[in-house]
Amino acid sequence: MSDTLPHDIAELGDGSLIRLVPRWYCDAGAISIYYPSRTLLPAKSRVFIDWVGDAFKAQRLAERFAGSLA
Fold first, then answer.
1. CB neighbours (10 Å) of residue 54?
2. For residue 59, with 0-12 CB atoms within 10 Å meaning exposed, 13-18 middle and 19 or more buried, which class applies?
3. Distance CA 50, CA 61 (A)
4. What is the pTM of this model?
């Protein structure tokens, strides 16, 4: 992943970076985190899973960049 991704998201949000084809979206599908079991899940893994979920909710990434033509 690019080191500039957080900056790109901000620029898409404030309008300084625009889509060249506004009605076209790439829907890469769902994002999933797979792990073997909830039992004996390492604390590092639980923290990462929670962080990803919180980041998507806080920045409304799923809503802002959904692959729909609406």
1. 10
2. middle
3. 15
4. 0.47
CA nearest to 34, candidates 52, 19, 18: 52
Domain of 51 in residue numbering reads as 21-70
* Inter-residue contact 56 to 64 (CB < 8 Å): no
Dist. CA 67–CA 70, nearest whole Å: 9
User: Which tops the pLDDT comparison, 43 or 67?
Assistant: 43
Q: What distance in Å separates the CA atoms of residue 70 and residue 68, rounded to the nearest whole number?
A: 6
Write down the mean pLDDT value for the chain: 73
Please tell me the total count of domains within the chain. 1
Asked if the structure places residue 70 within a domain, the reply is yes
Give the DSSP H/E element, type plus range, for residue 30. none
